[in-house]
Amino acid sequence: MPDQDINFYDYHPSMAAAAIFTVLFAISTVLHCVQSIQKRAWFMTPFIIGGFFETVGYIGRISSSNDPHARTPFILQTLLILLAPALFAASIYMVLGRIILLTDGESYSLIRRTWLTKIFVASDVLSFLLQCGGGGIMASNQTDPSKVKLGQNIILVGLFAQLAVFAFFVVVACLFQIRGRAHFQTLPASVAWRKHLHVLYATSILILIRSLFRIIEYIMGNDSYLLRHEVFVYVFDALLMLLAMIMVNLVHPGDIATMLKKKSHVGNGFELRDSELISKR
């Protein structure tokens, strides 16, 4: 069946909504690039790539609003918007490792810091590959219901893996804070670890909600109420991921790298003057 005979959506994609989120994601992504370069926070690279995925994905939706029958924009937006949160997660996993290092709190972590990032990032890569493979199968075979179903099932496996690993990650972060609460009270106020952990919690919850939405969406199938109404994509995916990006803009993890460098210059402990780090709080 020729592409011009296929409407890849159960609605006409909104040009205005796609354009607004394209601009907002682009602004946040460019700001993340500038912040990460200035702070030499190279561990934020996956997060930045995720921002580019979101931006280009919504450009694809703009193109789809002009021609809902075009295959390439549909595949582009399906894959990039689906995969972006896995890239956000990769950087968030690395943030916790740096918070543990900053606070000398490895003894309070359920998983050793040296293994924590490796375990969670490896799990994230597996989830990413599953979603990528499933999304590719589903998006490129819209006229074959069996392949669409196969693609959806593979995506679901990837999303369930992402949800389970991320939920466990939040548990690890919470236990780290609870177990080390007495130790953390001895740290100087200028070591601003707490706000970064709170942003980590907030962004993690947003990604968890988004992943749960996607799981429900794919379980309900192609004829579901969620897939037939575009508003849900923007409320439970676009908006949540944009909020996650903005929160990380406002409390950028690159400040942790700056504090770690200052800490290394004074040797063991936290013999730092408040005036040196007060701007990082």
Describe the overall structure.
This protein is mainly alpha-helical. The protein has one domain: Rhopdopsin 7-helix transmembrane proteins. Helices cover 74% and strands 0% of the residues. The chain contains ten helices and no strands. It has helices at 15-39, 45-66, 71-102, 113-140, 145-179, 181-184, 194-220, 231-250, 254-265, 274-277. Helix 4 (113-140) runs antiparallel to helix 5. The longest helix is centred in the middle third of the chain and has 35 residues, at 145-179. 38% of the residues are buried. Mean pLDDT is 87; it is low at 269-281.
Could you give the order of the helices and strands? HHHHHHHHHH
Task: Please tell me what the overall shape is.
Answer: elongated
> Which structural class fits the helix and strand makeup?
mainly alpha
Mean pLDDT: 87
Question: Rg, please?
Answer: 21 Å
CATH topology type: Rhopdopsin 7-helix transmembrane proteins
| Major sheet size, sense and barrel closure | none
- Termini separation comes to 59 Å
Low-confidence stretches: 269-281
Number of separate structural domains = 1
Estimated helix fraction: over 70%
Strand content: under 5%
The CATH class is Mainly Alpha
CATH-defined architecture: Up-down Bundle
Secondary structure tally, helices:
10
Count of DSSP E strands? 0
